[in-house]
Design brief:
The protein is mainly alpha-helical. The chain has 1 helix and no strands. The protein is elongated, with a radius of gyration of 13 Å.
């Protein structure tokens, strides 16, 4: 769940990161290995959890 003042920017950055990882992997990855995107909860609250982890 996205929250806070900059939640819309965070969503845009997340989507851009997914796109970048996809493009990098399609081009052969980094040193021949696929890139893995990991998204973590940085809000500091244990009540919220990351919505997506790859």
């Amino acid at each position: 769940m996205e929250s806070g003042r900059y939640k819309d920017l965070g969503l845009q950055q997340r989507l851009a990161a997914f796109l970048a990882v996809e493009e990098i992997d399609e081009a052969g990855g980094v040193l021949g290995k696929e890139v893995e995107l990991i998204i973590r909860n940085t809000s500091g609250s244990c009540r919220t959890r990351p919505s997506t982890v790859l």
